[in-house]
Design brief:
240 residues; alpha/beta; 45% helix
């Protein structure tokens, strides 16, 4: 993940060079000056108006530089979003699971320290309550609850929705395990759960933790929601 983040950073910085060049040319045209100091003057309204409007419809040079500026600016924004949403995985296989506290669907405060060392843990982060993929995943965990119990494993689902949303989701689908409300995404950030689609969609990642509190397996798949259950059971069987 660090390599990917550095790669995006290099692209982000490199793309800024042509963007700066075309912005400079554009500002000089818009403000009708050849002075380089226009690039550092804190005046922007005419630039914005010229960029998204059409100040000089007969001026081909203005139109050319406006289009180039818009193109490079758009790509720069995309690179910016990618870079700042390319998470560095903080919890990796072999890490100790971090301590955290969150409210469950009943509004009760749950502390990970109360179960670490006592049970195997299956901690799965999912994007959103009651969406198609998340419902399939949640119901699949529900249907295999007895098998997880036989492996002395506790299932914990975590997403950013409220306690009320989690309770409604759990009641609707008869979910028989904990759902924790991470409304500020603090625990998601604590684990370093990677996002999808430039970080616009929260990642779907499952962590298997043994009774020593060690993360022994991580499964990351946004689209194959039900496979999270299969992979968790497979690893728990190996642990026996």
């Amino acid at each position: 993940m660090d390599f990917n983040r550095n790669l995006w950073l290099m692209l982000f910085l490199a793309w800024g060079l042509p963007l700066g060049y075309y912005r400079s040319k554009f500002r000089k045209l818009v403000y009708q000056t050849d002075r380089w100091t226009i690039n550092i003057k804190p005046v922007f309204w005419r630039e914005i108006k010229g960029l998204f409007g059409n100040l000089y419809p007969e001026n081909k040079k203005y139109i050319q530089f406006r289009n180039f500026y818009l193109f490079y600016l758009l790509i720069y924004v995309v690179l910016f979003v990618i870079y700042f949403n390319t998470d560095t995985m903080k919890v990796v296989e072999g890490s100790q699971v971090p301590s955290f506290e969150l409210k469950n669907q009943y509004g009760e405060l749950f502390s990970s320290d109360s179960v670490v060392g006592k049970k195997n843990l299956v901690i799965y982060f999912y994007p959103k309550d009651d969406t198609p993929g998340c419902t399939k995943e949640a119901c699949s965990f529900r249907d295999q609850f007895a098998v997880f119990a036989d492996a002395d494993a506790m299932i914990i689902g975590i997403s950013a929705q409220s306690v009320e949303s989690h309770l409604a989701f759990a009641k609707k689908h008869r979910l028989n395990y904990l759902l924790l409300s991470d409304t500020g995404n603090q625990v998601r950030k604590l684990f370093g759960v990677p996002g999808n689609l430039f970080g616009l969609i929260p990642g779907r990642v499952t962590y298997i933790v043994d009774k020593k509190g060690e993360v022994i397996y991580i499964f990351n798949s946004q689209m194959d929601a039900e496979k999270h259950v299969d992979e968790a059971l497979r690893i728990l069987q190996v642990m026996k």
